[in-house]
Amino acid sequence: MSEVFLGLPTAPRGVGHLRGDRSFPDAARDSLRDGQLRANLGHATSTIRAKRAAVVGEVPDWEQLRAAGKAIKAATMARLDEHLLELEKQVTARGGTVHWARDAAEANAIVTRLVQAAGTDEVVKVKSMATQEIGLNEALEAAGIAAHETDLAELIVQLGEDKPSHILVPAIHKNRAEIREIFLRTMPGVDPTLTDDPRRLAMAARAHLRERFLRARVAISGANFAVAETGTLCVVESEGNGRMCLTLPQTLITVMGIEKVVPTWRDLEVFLQLLPRSSTGERMNPYTSTWAGVTPGDGPQEFHLVLLDNGRTAVLADEVGREALHCIRCSACLNVCPVYERAGGHAYGSVYPGPIGAVLSPQLTGVEDNASLPYASSLCGACYDVCPVAIDIPSILVHLRAEHVEAQERTTPEAVAFQALSKAMSSPRLWRLAQRAAGLGRFLARGRPTLPAALPPPAWKWTRTRDLPTPPRETFTQAWAREHGQ
Amino acid sequence: MKVALFATCLVDTMVPQVAWATAVLLERLGHEVVVPPGQSCCGQMHVNTGYRREAVPIVANHVRAFAGAEAIVAPSGSCVASIHHQQAAVARRAGEHALADEAAALAERTYELSQFLVDVLGVTDVGAYYPHRVTYHPTCHSLRMLRVGDRPLQLLRAVRGLDLVELPAADQCCGFGGTFAVKNAETSTAMLTDKMANVLATHAEVCTAGDASCLMHIGGGLSRLRSGTRTVHLAEILASTEEAVTPHQTTAPAVPR
Fold first, then answer.
1. Are B12 and B116 in the same domain?
2. Angle at B194 between CA B190 and CA B198, to 5 degrees
3. CA Rg value for chain B
4. Distance between CA B215 and CA B229 in Å, rounded?
């Protein structure tokens, strides 16, 4: 029986930030040499790891919570269309307007139109990975609209004309001295005696932002969750900038990936326990805001929800890969990943880096546009252990590697080698021959216990930094057969 | 008990002493060891590099080689994890349902060495002697996929003369990761550096683990840097006894043959 694909295509090229210019190995080669980055990341991630471990350790039913989170997400994805339609119905009933954006370009056009209709040329933004994904700030800027980030880390990234490197703490690659330098250089009216004391930095940002909060007529946010049953949106944050943006302006526009919907209000009970402990390592985050539509005389009088696909239904079509849509963007996987800790987020080329990025970015764009990401992992499994919704990231990585191999139209040298090895390893006679051939490498060793470092590719990639042992005279199975008269 | 030994492609070809040590150890504990001659590889490398279709004939060969074995033991956490978690699945995906069922049944009877000793044979003191300072690295697949827990440490603590010292940040990946070590050689090396720093901080003579692959990576780095610290597989330590000690005792395990 043939299958009909009912979803939308993968995220289009030329818009948004899901693709890098260089492969992961190439980008990592440079970022690994950045000692400041390595120090900043190593310190930040080890600190958050310890905090997360401590607060998760306090919860006696953590494994059951994970299982519940995974089950709710799986059930939601199975009926995503129904839940989204219900969400639209409820948001509309409560005075909001729902827009459906097939991709980044459409979402940017919708939001730009809405901001222009509100008659303003600036907006304040709550941190939103979805808006980073689609390149909204750039699209607004092209239309003459200034988008002011109000999350401290996003503000730092914006003032520094940089790119986010982490999904929760986008400026993790910067230390306080570097942040002070950015503020001094770019923040209008900043105190020239500003030090790198965290409180002083925060107060400088606060003064800078306060003015914008009080002025703004339009705010743009993302959403951590949207409850279909009640049409409620939910933003989980630490700084209070979310609350300022969600309550003060006249118009609120929320851009949300379609996978963020949850069926019922009660489902939030599970996620609001899983998310803060997994992300910032706190028992509960300082500010959780929920709102449904508009309330006359209180808060924004105009609310727009922009539902974003941008490759998500393409991900949903993959039976193994669709689990990546369960992600609640906590970043626990990034904080525990030994590869991310050393290479940093920029090396992944996408606003979604780290383990979840390595499975989500290639699926959103189509694997061939991010072909090096599924291989940017040693498959250690630490991410799977900490994921609050138990996404089996290692299995998806292996699956995407196969998708990449199977997508090749022409046979690569690597494929030739692996096909030959497969033949050798599936025939005892050929395998013995292959082992004999490997044993010939002994001659290169000239009697020494290790092979010379200068070897042809791909072996040189190993021997540049590690010795290889000299192959033995006999294999174990050969010697055993000989000694046991076989 | 009759135990079929799966040497694994890497051990068989590059570090046969690990398989010898496994055989010697099991025989010393009173069991009969057989080595099915048709064995080669479990297919993990192919599966993890994206060649799952090409892995199917390798799985078929493995199943054929070990057909009828009562218990299969391998000195490798990653190979046993692949046998448990990947072999049946890749066969099934390729439509080879009979092979998938056989692979799944075989997996039930396949054990990583420390799991076999502690869970099946019920021993933690295997009568070994290894008078050296040793630190243990828990390989990722044995730690997170097989969940061997502290079985290897229980076994090491019972070894006479062994000074066991805890490895700092032990649960951090060493950076091997199969073809990752070559495709992302730079990141792999960065991870290796931190693992080596932690090993060297213990002043251990030997770093041990249940996977020859990780040990080749860690040992390769320690050797290149002329650190003086070596890697020795867990099987070799557990097989080592006083009987085989020579006047020229080094950190090479004294495995009698």
1. yes
2. 165
3. 18
4. 12
For chain A positions 321-360, those within 8 Å of chain B (CB to CB) are 338-339, 342-343
In degrees and rounded to multiples of 5, residue A458 shows phi and psi of -85, -5
Query: Chain B within 8 Å of A404 (Cβ-Cβ)?
Result: yes
Which residues lie closer than 8 Å to B93 by C-beta, 6 or more apart? B52
Q: Are residues B109 and B39 part of one domain?
A: yes
Q: Is residue B250 part of a domain?
A: no
User: Are B187 and A376 in contact (CB < 8 Å)?
Assistant: yes
Q: Do A384 and B39 touch (CB under 8 A)?
A: no
Q: What CATH number does the domain containing B174 carry?
A: 3.40.50
B140 lies in the same domain as B115 = no
Question: In Å, how far from its chain's centre is CA B199?
Answer: 18
Identify whether residues B87 and B32 lie together within a single domain. yes
pLDDT tens, position by position, B68-123? 999 999 999 999 999 999 999 999 999 999 999 999 999 999 999 999 999 999 99
pTM score of the predicted model? 0.96
A426·B57 Cβ contact <8 A: yes
* Whether A319 contacts chain B with CB within 8 A: no
Do residues B205 and B146 both lie within one domain?
Answer: yes
Domain of B166? 133-244
* B138 interfacial to chain A (CB closer than 8 Å): no
Q: Are the beta carbons of A32 and B186 separated by less than 8 Å?
A: yes
What total number of domains does chain B contain? Answer: 2
What pLDDT score was predicted for residue A4? 73
